[in-house]
Amino acid sequence: MRIAVSDASFTPPRVQGRNTRKGLTTLSMMPPLEFIIKMGIYALMTVCVAGALLSVLFRNLFHAALALTGVLLGIAGIYLALHADFLAMIQVLIYVGAVMTLVIFAIMLTERFGDASLRQFNHQSWAALGGGILLLTFLVRMIQTTPWPVKNQAALASPAVTVVQLGEALLGPYVFPFEIISVILIAALIGAIVVARKDLEA
Amino acid sequence: MEFMDQIFVNLKSTVLTLAGGFLPPWAVILLCAAISLGVIAVIGPVTMMYLTLIERKVLARMQNRIGPNRTGPWGLLQPLADGIKMLTKEDIVPKNADRIVHLVAPILIVIPALLVFAVIPFGKNMIPADLSVGVLYFLSISSTTTIAIFSASWASRNKYSLLGGMRAVAQMISYEIPMVLSVVPILLVTQSLSTGAIVRAQGAYGGWGWFVFTPWGFAAFITFFLCAVAECNRSPFDLPEAESEIVAGFHTEYSGMKFALFYMAEFMNAFTLSALAATLFLGGWQGPWLPSWAWFFIKTYALIFIMLWFRGTLPRFRVDQMMNLAWKFLLPLSLINILVAGFWHFANPPLAIGGSIAMLWASGWIFTRLNRDYTPEKRTYLFGE
Amino acid sequence: MFFGSGVIKGMLVTLKAFAASYFRGPDKGGIFTVQYPEQRLAEKENFRNFPFLVYDKTPDNLRCVACDICAKECPPKCITIVREFDKDNKPLKRPAVFSIDHTVCMNCGICEEACPFDAIFMDHNFEIASTDRQGDLLLQKEALLKSNDYFNKIRPTDASAIDAKRAEAEAKKKAAEQAAAAKAAAAAAAPKLAAAAADKPAVPTEPPKTV
Amino acid sequence: MTTRTNSLKTTMQTSKNYEVRDPQSSIETQTLAINVGPQHPSTHGVFRMNVVLDGEVVTSLKPVMGYLHRNHEQIAENMSYAASMPYTDRLDYFNSMTNNFGWALTVEKLAAIDVPERVEYVRVIMAELTRLVNHVSAIGFLLNDLGAFFTPVLYAFREREKILDIFEEVSGSRMMCNYFRFGGLRRDVTPAVLEKIRGIVNKFPAFLDEFETLLTKNEILCMRCQNVGILPRDLAVNASITGPLLRASGVNYDIRKVDGYSVYNRFEFKVPLGPKGDVYDRYYVRILEMRESLKILDQALKGIPAGEIMAKKMLPFVKSPRNFKPPVGEAYGRVEGPKGELGFYVVSDGTAQPWRYHVRAPSFINLTILEDMCRGQKLADAIVILGSIDIVLGEVDR
User: Strand (E) positions, chain D?
Assistant: First the structure.
């Protein structure tokens, strides 16, 4: 086996094996590595689910916000594992770096955010449960019916989507969702003010 | 020359080649990552330790003092002594503090500070991980520091901490925006987000094609560096830990090793941000005669020296002035700068140079005029009798 | 001037100081630090720290006559003096106890000023840090006693003036004594006694009688 | 951890003519009551400020003093006149020479003692050197409060050190000088010392220029100081503010000029006045005052005559200060201390101890308007305003 010193040799070197096509070893040829990465993804999933649950269950709003931050970071990790570098970075930059900070700032402006006597359920709980179940079934159905490219080996072998392509796509066919994201950011900003705003009548 | 330049790279590939003789490929890959991680894990804290010594020495020299010189020759063991002191100090947690968050915050703040080392090109072929989204990775990871600072300030249940935390969040969010925008011209010109590619793009004229020598690069460098100083809470933007006002800001209630972690994160941020500034604007490891990694460290430490120099000279901004500088001066300037970079890219050289300098100068002048409230007044002093 | 020029000028000042710290001396903008235990500044002659008691030649010849003036003048009242008595309960002109509490003393120098016998002076020794407040900082007579030579060493100008003054006073007194002795000899016609009086040492173990 | 909104309301009621918050604003935030001090890096000692903040804006500020109370006045009433002299050193421990000056002046007034010419000159020289020491370190500390990390302080202390060396050589002690006596001085000034003072006076302007280059024109300093903590002329006069604080507000009042005590009326110097009365003016007026002090020093060094250093009337009391008994009566003596009018009021009943002794401490009286200057400013400004008043807690609490 020969290790090629690539231009960026501090990154994992390309391992040239005898029985590889195009001189490249793919992950599936190295079961231990594949296993580690799989475990990592499962860990990230656990972090996401646990964080999501905790963010709902914590009484303290600040703790809930921290748990939510964990969820967002976990999702970013999953993106990273799926070779969506750009998306992962944007996820961290926007959600963790900006939105969550604004959310925490908004929490700081509320009174009694750490009050243990706050109720976690109200009369809308049942409606929320119904809505949640509906959403869950919808998502499960969607997952089942989508033709995931994971099963498509050709798609896997193709190089990852570059930032350039992504940029062209964002400002081309997907310009509308792109604008939606900016609307969400504005919403977060306004939300921060709204949370801090006390009803004048009350 | 070439040998010195690539000494670390060759060392690593030798190790990996040797290991490849008896290890399976997947283990070699893991080993490769482990070596990089190990190097970072050593470089980070050691940098921090000696930055504290350098800071104290440089400040002392600026103040007609000697600085620490009792521990070891030239005080070289001082960081070690400090480390031992920090480790053996009592860990005090305030009674009403949120114990878990209080514990987690210093850890949270160190993680991003260490993570960003991954994309810094320490020399030719010496990037731990040449991500295609390197710059974005750096900026996004370092933006998570805000949450850690906020957790620390909130969990301490101290009013000074809270004030410091509020200042820190306001400051870091505000300065992130002009900082990101000041990087955009570089990304436009190099058409890449990878730090390695950005450094390679500055290799013209025998390693002197640094972006800081272009008008837009210079403006972006000033903007970026000011924002970097603000991002790592250093003077004159040290409001979150303003000693004379709010004691120690968000880490008022931290002692012992937890405090050391905050300190470590601050100094590692100072180092990595200087390193990124050197990478983006000062050509990273590009430069003649010396090995590439030497150039990198020279540039980075020069920028760190400027940070220390700021600290030794300048008074602190006030909250509103600090926000004003970010939103009313640096932000519009960096937006204009993107246009200037585009102009530079598409216009003919003489027009490009003159035009972009004129545009930047004019906009700088206009923004200064618009912020007239903050320019010094001329005063005349009368004398009695 | 453009915005920021003041900042840049200020920074040049500190840069100059930084450079000067390597190439210039302390009086030219370089490092001003004196690394204390190894390096010391020259002591000023008038420097005053805690007081001490002066003796001439031997510690028995201390000048203090236990008049208690310094203790009375002392603003924070840190001096304690107890007069010594002989076997017959007759007061002697020397202190049995003379203590100065360094934790109370504020180095004002009034005792030195007020002392009519030039017996108490301000010391130069300032390295008296101690953890034992009663043992080391409440100084007794023995610890306070220092020789006139020491005084001459630390404050030559003052000491020589005082020595001259004392010598003059001594000479005057001797002359007066001699005159008195001569007078007595003439009156009582007892030359033996007069000779004995004249041979008496100048500074006896018993303090000289003040006239 | 935060006070409820009602605490704000009460403070708003107490300060009727000032409203920090826009009543139309619908964003409701809580106020934050914080205790700045008594252990705080920039309260200049054991001083406490009860500050109520709305965000960063100070809505109310109550100074709390007395942590360093040492019963100075009572102690002085229980000991001889001369024995109070070393205690006055410890009032404003930066300026023991001017404190001595004030006390000596008062007793000389009470007992009608004529002071020899040389003594007056030496006193003026020492007082002006003290002013240099005080102003240079006051500015240094002010800049430190502004966040300039110790550089100005250490530059200031470097120069202060040279002057303190003079004090040590003259009086025996660097800070607690105890140098003045009623009708004279503790000891004479040697020609060598005068030569050293001459050297300092010659070199000081260069240092001041350097110091000014460091920060006077600095944009950040101007931003932080200009139009911050404005003290209006009439308020300054009504609150009996004195010293550089008053002159920065544009009131032409300097006791050296008004009283012309000692030999000050023989020297030519001017009184710098500030146009606005903000922190920047206080900073700059101090620098200008130092330059004027240098002028006085220059003239005094040229004009110093030879002669006695103790009034004939007081010679008997040199060795027995306890026997000094001024006639029955009262006297108020005042000097222009570096921080303002330092006055001593003393009533004598003919015994060796004063019957009544009172100190008019400039730091204390200047501190009374702290809240008026700070309300509506940011917390950071409050610290700077406190620094610009230039207090010494030894004098405030006495």
Answer: 32-36, 48-54, 57-64, 180-181, 184-185, 271-273, 329-337, 340-348, 354-360
Question: Angle at which helices B256-281 and B145-155 pack, to 10 degrees?
Answer: 160
Token pair belonging to B191: 């058409």
The string of DSSP codes covering D221-244 is HHHHHTTSS---HHHHHHTT--TH
Contact call for residues B25 and A15 (beta carbons, < 8 A): yes
ipTM given for this complex: 0.78
Best CA proximity match to B273, nearest among B378, B365, B176 = B176
In angstroms, rounded to a whole number, what is the distance separating the alpha carbons of residues A198 and D181? 68
Reduce the DSSP state of residue C53 to 3 states and report it: strand
Phi-psi region of B249 (alpha: psi -120 to 50; beta: other; left: phi over 0): left
Q: Is the pLDDT of residue B100 over 80?
A: yes
Helix and strand tally (H, E) in chain A? Answer: 8, 2
Query: Which residue out of D320, D323, D353 would a mutagenesis test of the C interface target, given it has the greatest number of C Cβ atoms within 10 Å?
Result: D320
Which CATH architecture group holds A31-111?
Up-down Bundle (1.20)
Q: List all residues 6 or more positions away from B321 whose beta carbon is below 8 Å from its beta carbon.
A: B374, D220, D223, D224
Give contacts of B75 with chain C, Cβ < 8 Å.
none
Q: Under 8 Å CB-to-CB from D182, ≥6 apart: which residues?
A: D81, D82, D104, D107, D108, D111, D113, D311, D314, D317, D324
**Mean pLDDT, rounded, for B188-203:** 83
Q: Distance (Å, rounded) from C-alpha B153 to C-alpha B163? A: 8
Q: What's the maximum distance between 2 C-alpha atoms anywhere in chain A? A: 77
Residue given tokens 């002071």 in the structure block: D115
Q: Which helix (H) or strand (E) holds C160?
A: helix C156-188
Phi-psi region of B233 (alpha: psi -120 to 50; beta: other; left: phi over 0): left
Chain D: closest CA distance from residue B178 (Å): 20
Mutation site, A11, A28, A189, interface B, largest B CB count within 10 A: A11
The two tokens of residue A21 are 């096509």
Best CA proximity match to C120, nearest among C157, C146, C95:
C146
CA A11 centroid distance within chain? 25
| DSSP secondary structure letters along B40-74 | HHHHHHHHHHHHHHHHHHHHHHHTT---S-SSSGG
The pLDDT tens digits of the residues spanning C121-134 come to: 888 888 888 888 87
D336 with D134: CB under 8 angstroms? no
Tell me the pLDDT of chain A (202 aa) as tens digits.
333 333 333 344 444 433 334 444 455 556 777 788 888 888 988 989 999 888 888 877 888 888 888 899 898 888 887 777 788 888 888 888 778 887 887 777 665 555 556 666 777 888 988 999 999 999 999 988 887 766 555 555 555 566 777 778 888 888 888 888 889 988 987 887 777 665 544 4
The verdict on D25 touching A (C-beta cutoff 8 Å) is no
End-to-end CA distance of chain B: 73
Token digits of residue C137: 């900082």
Domains of chain C in start order, with CATH, are 51-166 (3.30.70.3270)
The verdict on a CB contact (< 8 Å) between C113 and D318 is yes
Domain locations in chain A as residue ranges:
31-111, 162-202
Count of beta carbons in the 10 Å neighbourhood of residue D296? 21
**How far is the alpha carbon of D11 from chain B, nearest alpha carbon, in Å?**
19
Peptide bond into A159 cis (omega under 30): no
Question: Between chains, do A89 and B137 touch, taking CB under 8 Å as contact?
Answer: yes
Report phi then psi at B68, rounded to 5. -60, 125
pLDDT of residue A137: 94
More confident residue, B375 or A42: A42
Q: Are B177 and D50 in contact (CB under 8 A)?
A: no
Structure tokens at C99: 């203590």
